[in-house]
Design brief:
By secondary structure, the chain is mainly beta. It is built from 2 helices and 23 strands.
């Protein structure tokens, strides 16, 4: 057989269609609820399974409610609401590595009844699969067939790895603490580097703690910390391409109070799930041109796509906005605290060498009205647009995770609430590289037998030896041996003499 099938593998990252998912959480508070003052919501994925045509996954929505009970006490209620969902696509195959993320897009308190609070949460679910796809090409074992091979660059998927680490940090205070009301922790990846058999992933952990002091004052503080971990991943080298994700298991965050006569200390233990993925660039030799000296050849060329990733980047900016209270809302006589600080990225795109990130920042402002001697809360939804330098083509695919820190809420003139915060966004980027190979070849009709002993062919100026031999349907070595004075590429139109063994 003249031709044999050969295969090589390339990385293929397949993004699945995004979708919204609504999860309803029924939270038991243990006391009759007068009102919900603040709500913080996080969503995360626990397990993922890829089968033929479907990805099944399960996760949980973590809610932290700051409530006022009917007896006037302010308490925090934490709850985890499990959910499950799926993605369906013909591109999904059993055994593929599948990755699912959920992001909180919106949430609200739907109803309050006695000790039960119903919370509706809208999640955006994103998923992609990673696998090595087989690309078919040919090899040749026929003395009458001439071929030229060339090396092409390919990208292969090495694999992924996941670990859970705990980041411990603390706030030292000069006063004692009566009660922790709310802990909100978020993590973001800033850098991912490949090593020999491992991936080094690092980033920031931002934790905001809201507490009640011994003097019954609402206080809050930020802990800005970092994490760095070496995650083992077989097959990774220092030349590999790597990417990574991080998310906080908010239902497992532990906040401890340590205090003595000198003051208090808040210790926060934040569990972070780290996922890394690796890719490597290689070379493969493939036939890129072919002809036969005896037969016509039917050649099929096929294109293929492979996925390439770029180094991760970080975009930073500032979010500012304001809200004017409706006339029916009581005025703000004393601002107490804000809670449920979050950010949702709604759109991201590349333009003129920059990445543009759009989204909505949320927080809830809790305040006191002296006239009615009542507590009230109002949610602020602050749209934002930030941009930062990012060098990539606009046809690629972006993935953006963002967190806010240093959130500041200020009230002016009793009805104007101003919001100010810093935002950090981790930016991942992947693109599709299109290439092609000769995937099939078939010998067709034989050429007529040459019944003459000599032939003169002309090599046009600038032509290489391969091009001349292919046009004349002879082997390169025949031209070289029978025309030793000619060098290629020829500088002028050059006659070449070819001798054949005449068949009697």
């Amino acid at each position: 057989m003249a031709f044999e099938r050969e295969n090589f593998n390339v990385a293929k990252k397949s993004n699945l269609s995004k979708g919204d998912l609504t999860v309803e959480c029924n939270v038991s508070t243990g006391a009759n609820v007068s009102k919900v003052l603040s709500l913080a919501v996080e969503g995360f994925v626990n397990s993922v399974e890829a089968l033929n045509g479907v990805i099944n996954y399960s996760g949980a929505v973590d809610t932290k409610l700051v409530i006022m009970a009917e007896d006037g006490q302010i308490n925090t209620v934490c709850s985890s609401c499990p959910f499950s969902s799926r993605f369906e696509s013909e591109e999904i195959e059993s055994g593929q590595d599948a990755f699912v993320k959920v992001k909180v897009i919106d949430y609200n308190v739907e109803s309050i009844g006695g000790e039960m609070v119903k919370v509706a949460v809208v999640l955006e679910q994103n998923a992609f699969t990673l696998a090595n796809r087989e690309v078919g090409t040919i090899d040749c074992h026929d003395d009458d067939v001439c071929y030229k091979k060339d090396e092409i660059s390919i990208i292969k998927y090495v694999g992924s790895s996941k670990v859970e680490v705990t980041n411990e940090s603390e706030i030292n205070l000069r006063e004692n603490i009566k009660k922790i009301l709310l802990t909100e922790s978020h993590a973001i990846v800033k850098n991912v580097d490949a090593g020999a058999g491992f991936v080094a992933i690092s980033g920031d952990v931002v934790t905001r703690v809201l507490y009640l002091s011994e003097n019954d004052k609402f206080e809050s503080g930020y802990i800005n910390d970092t994490f760095k971990e070496e995650v083992e991943l077989a097959g990774i080298t220092r030349e590999s391409f790597v990417e990574g994700d991080a998310f906080v298991k908010s239902d497992s965050v532990v906040t401890e109070i340590i205090q003595d006569e000198k003051g208090g200390k808040i210790v926060v233990k934040v569990p972070i799930v780290l996922t890394v993925r690796g890719f490597e660039e290689g070379k493969v030799a493939v036939i890129n041109d072919i002809y036969s000296i005896k037969n016509d050849i039917n050649v099929t060329t096929s294109s293929f796509n492979m996925s390439s990733i770029s180094p991760m980047a970080v975009a930073e900016g500032k979010i500012e906005g304001s809200l004017t209270l409706d006339e029916e809302m009581p005025r703000v006589d004393k601002f107490l605290f804000s809670g449920g600080n979050s950010v949702a990225v709604t759109n991201s795109y590349l333009k003129d060498g920059e990445i543009v990130i759009e989204g909505i920042a949320k927080t809830t402002a809790i305040y006191l009205n002296d006239e009615e001697s009542t507590l009230h809360s109002v949610q602020l939804d602050v749209p934002f647009v930030i941009s930062d330098k990012f060098n990539a083509t606009e046809s690629g695919i972006l993935t953006v995770d963002a967190i806010v820190n240093d959130v500041d809420v200020v009230v002016k003139k009793g009805r104007e609430i101003y919001y100010d915060a810093k935002i950090k966004a981790s930016v991942g980027y992947s693109s599709e590289i299109v290439s092609s190979v000769i995937s099939e070849a078939e010998l067709m009709e034989e050429y007529p037998v040459k019944d003459y002993a000599m032939e003169v062919v002309f090599a046009p100026s600038g032509k290489e030896l391969w091009e001349v031999a292919k046009a004349a349907r002879v082997k390169e070595e025949q031209i070289v041996s029978q025309n030793p004075e000619v060098t290629f590429p020829v500088s002028n139109d050059t006659p070449l003499v070819l001798f054949y063994q005449r068949v009697q």
